[in-house]
């Protein structure tokens, strides 16, 4: 018999204050074999994934900040660690330009985060163990056959402090 279980922190709703960003709590469906979680359904997404990859991040390590001109990222945080997600709206003239979001996701709060183009993003493993992140972007990395420029603007070396991870 399948039994639905909500995330541990389901009551903690992330207030989305950046246009186009989507934050969705994911659910576990437990049975005597283990669990299953739907990470996305095409009838629930605003974009269509073109590929998927998994990355492992060591404790205390951050990935980003960076942004994309055309690509939308669909991040899935399920654990086995906890991540702090950072988002900054870097779209000049947009209705939410300059807004910043910061929230925790992962093992105790399985979450899907959709990040549209022009939103600078980073995440940091704030847990004590290795963390896995699944990304299902709507563009192929380096295009068809990996022959096009990579759609990425890196901000890791920016010294202005506007995209700092605190």
Summarize, please.
With 166 residues, the protein is an all-beta fold.
Key terms for this structure?
166 residues, mainly beta, 13 strands, Jelly Rolls
Tell me what the structure shows.
This protein is an all-beta fold. The protein has a domain at 20-25 and 45-141: Jelly Rolls (Sandwich). It contains no helices and 13 strands. It has strands at 3-5, 22-25, 28-31, 34-36, 53-57, 62-67, 73-79, 82-89, 100-106, 111-115, 119-125, 131-135, 153-154. The strands form 3 sheets. Strands 2-10-7-12-5 form a 5-stranded antiparallel β-sheet, with no helix packed on it. Strands 9-8-11-6-13 form a 5-stranded antiparallel β-sheet, with no helix packed on it. The radius of gyration is 16 Å and the shape is globular.
Give the topology.
Layout: E1 3-5, E2 22-25, E3 28-31, E4 34-36, E5 53-57, E6 62-67, E7 73-79, E8 82-89, E9 100-106, E10 111-115, E11 119-125, E12 131-135, E13 153-154
Antiparallel strand pairs: 1-3, 2-10, 3-4, 5-12, 6-11, 6-13, 7-10, 7-12, 8-9, 8-11
Spatial strand order of the main sheet: 2-10-7-12-5
List low-pLDDT spans.
Answer: 1-9
The main β sheet shows up as: 5 strands, antiparallel
Shape summary: globular
